[in-house]
Amino acid sequence: MRDDRIDARKEATRLTEPVEEAAELARKLGLDPYPVNYWIVDHDEMNELIAYGGFQRRYPHWRWGMAYDRQQKQDQFGMGKAFEIVNNDNPSHAFLQESNSLADQKAVITHVEAHADFFANNEWFGLFGDGQGDERAALDAAAMLERHAEIVTGYVEDPEIDRDEVERFIDAVLCLEDTIDQHRAFARADQRRERDAPADLRERLDELGVSEDVRRQAFDEEWLDELAESERAAARLEEPHKDVLAYLREHGQQFDGESGKATEFDPWQKDVLDILRTESYYFAGQKMTKVMNEGWASFWESLMMSDENFAGTDEFVTYADHMARVLGSPGLNPYKLGKELWEYVENVTNRRAVADRLLRVEGITWRNFHDVVDFDEVADLLAPDPAIATVTPETLSDLDPADPRVDADTLERARAGEVDVERYPWKVLTTAGLAERHFSLCKPQNRGFLRRIRRSELERLARYMFDDAKYDTVAEALTDVDYGAGWRRMRELRESHNDVTFIDAFLSEEFVTENDYFTYEFSQATGDFRVASGDPDDVKKKLLLQFTNFGKPTVAVYDGNFDNRNELLLGHQYNGISLDVEQAKRVLERTYDLWGRPVNLMTIVKEYDEHELEIARRRNREPTPTEVGKRIRYDGTRFETHELEPDLEERIAANDIDYDTKPEDWLT
């Protein structure tokens, strides 16, 4: 047996207890994760898994080698360390790097358990499996991706198929891998057939070899024009088709250089397109919930490792450094933003639960709340019961087995010396007990959160109090506080939201102000980046833009028979941010390979007058661009750029639903 495999076995033995205890603690905290299989891997294996998106086998393609090289260089030059990777599957599979310290391994394990809970319960992941519960249990992503790898490998090794042609076809599809309808449940492309674009009758007459004399006698030119227009109208899509890959799967063709015409896809091409589209839908849930998912995992990891002392005394400094590196990564950090948003949701929910009780105390109203409430007294009264807050072998006698906060069976075993309460005090508590033990408003960093509640929120709470419960004193009112409200609300939200809806709903003015968020943009006037705005609305719009459609331009099919010439018309749904036109042209070249006929892309570009731009620079202000609709056409050999018709420009222009966000407005 190789020495490194012996090391892996030793590491697996060392981690058996942390794995079992973390899974139990996660469930005690109210999580409901998929079962997780943990695998010990070395440094190179970890880099391979990261390159493959968390799976051990993928279809052959150069992209994986590029991803592996990038990850290897990132490690080599100290640009970030890979601690773990976990995939969305039932059971989930998590891979731990054997060279990690025990503190790092524990952090990874607690993080993974929270991810597995998110995978199992978030509805956006459920879209791929057509639901959750029993249907969701059938998910076996690892086996699916391995089947895909075998199929594509078979085509690559088939002597009748050019390997380079397979790779080029995959390249073309991958350029459009995010042009799917990620808000709909996954369905086979052939389950959503669209009407085939009709061929112009003139072309059919040419193909049949009808003579010019017969043609003039049998077919009136005006009638042919009217027929072409009616067929063009019939083929036009009433609504943009968002699943571009599905549309190309059903209507796309390949250009045959010998005949000079578009021909049907080969069977292997349809098969590969189906495979890549399926994988795009599978990975869509992860892309749509990156902030929520990483924030969720970081929140519960921090609670388990720090608040529940899952990190031992001798491991805590190492863990603190681990978490600081994760949360301190530069740029838009999904771990930090997500964790802070989940903490905000918890605090807001708990604050409302407390305020709801206080507003029922005689003499306290929403108008005088801040004047008559003694917030220090409230903080002291909210502090968890000492018997719950500090559980030790010596205090077990203080716990009542009949108390709903106490796990009676485990308490009995602990009193008999069968449970290590010194290391795992949470074992004798229920979810309700742990919720009180970790009530967020009692934490030092949140002591002022209740005080910051706005009168408008208090007024809303008072307005919708439908029961008549009243209290004579603050102390009496606070004995009825629901300590589990925050966690329960968090679990509800993790079921239904994605990043866009989550940010839209909970990134408030209070959150932006307290966490010092701001926007920055490239200035046309100064030629560099600068802080653009600290306005909460601007921050929200910018973040929504970053996460809508995975942060990529939204492109849909608008017509499969544009100008009645079987040309594809794509539309960039403009939201104030222009496309990189040169990059868009490269994508059109790839799209042509999947359509076999000319392709068009509608977009809106910003044009600047040089004179106005120079004046703006001198006055240190932003110039005002002119937004112009353009249609870029590619026929397989050359590009043409045309002015976009006003009715088409109107169809792709931004509106409020598109989170219209104009950087030049922020910079003025």
From TrEMBL:
- Could you tell me which residue ranges the SpoVR-like C-terminal domain spans? 553-604
Q: Which InterPro entries does this entry report, sorted A to Z?
A: Spore_V_R, SpoVR-like_C, SpoVR_N
Highest taxon above the source species: Archaea
Segments forming domain SpoVR protein-like N-terminal: 13-356
UniProt-recorded name of the protein = SpoVR family protein
